[in-house]
Amino acid sequence: MIEWLLVPAAYLIGSISSAIIVCRLMRLPDPRGQGSGNPGATNVVRIGGKKAGAITLAGDALKGLIPVLIAQLLDVNSLLLSLVVVAAFIGHLYPVFFNFKGGKGVATSLGVSLGVNVFLGLAILATWLLVYKIGKVSSLSALVAAILAPFYVWLIMGDQYLIITFTLTTLLLLWRHKSNIQKLLQGTED
Questions:
Q1: pTM of the model as a whole
Q2: Secondary structure of residue 51 in the 3-state scheme
Q3: pLDDT digits (tens, 9 = 90+) for 5-44
Q4: Cβ(89)–Cβ(105) under 8 Å?
Q5: Over the stretch 77-102, which tens digit does the pLDDT of each residue have?
Q6: Residue 173 and residue 147 in contact, taking contact as beta carbons nearer than 8 Å
Q7: Are residues 72 and 145 in contact, defined by beta-carbon separation less than 8 angstroms?
Q8: How far apart are CA 90 and CA 101, in angstroms?
Q9: Which burial class, exposed, middle or buried, applies to 158 when counting CB atoms under 10 A from its CB (0-12, 13-18, 19+)?
Q10: Given 1, 14, 63, 64, which is the most exposed site by the fewest CB atoms within 10 A?
Q11: Domain ranges of the chain
Q12: How far apart are CA 64 and CA 107, in angstroms?
C-alpha cells in the first residue's frame, strides 16, 4: 500500500517549476511576468535564450519522467500508474508551490509519456518535431502531438486506464492552450 504514496509525491514533484528555478539561477526575469507570462520552456527561450529554454525543457520533462519511472520500477498496476501520470501532470499545471499557476504541460507530458513507454514518448516527440518542421509553430506542434497521444497509447499499449489518462491530459493541455488555439484560428500565433 505504500506505493499509493507515489500519487501525492508525483504531484509535489510536478509542482516544482523548472522555469522559475532556471530563471532565478540564471538571473533572468521571472517568466510569469515576462513574455507570454507562462512558466514554461518556450517562454524561457523568449526571455533567456535557447540554453535557458533547453534546461527548463529538460527539467519539466524529468519531473514527469521520474515519478513514472519510479512507479514502473515498483511494478505498480495500470490504475496506479495512470494516477501517477495525472498527478505529475496536474502538479505542473497547478503547482502547490507557486499559487497553483503553472505551465501548459507540454514537456511534462512528454516526460510522463517516455516513462510510460519509450515508444509512446518517441511517437509523441516525432509528431511534435514533424509538425514543427512543417509549420514552425511550437503551440500547433504541441496540440497535434497531444491530440494524437491517446491514439498512440491505444495503438502501442491498448491499456484502457492509460487511454483514459492520456485523453484527460490531452483535454487539460488543450484547455491550457486555449489562448494559443484562438491565436492559431485568427492567424496571429507567433
A1: 0.92
A2: helix
A3: 999 999 999 999 999 999 999 999 999 988 888 898 989 9
A4: yes
A5: 999 999 999 999 999 999 999 889 89
A6: no
A7: no
A8: 11
A9: exposed
A10: 1
A11: 2-186
A12: 8
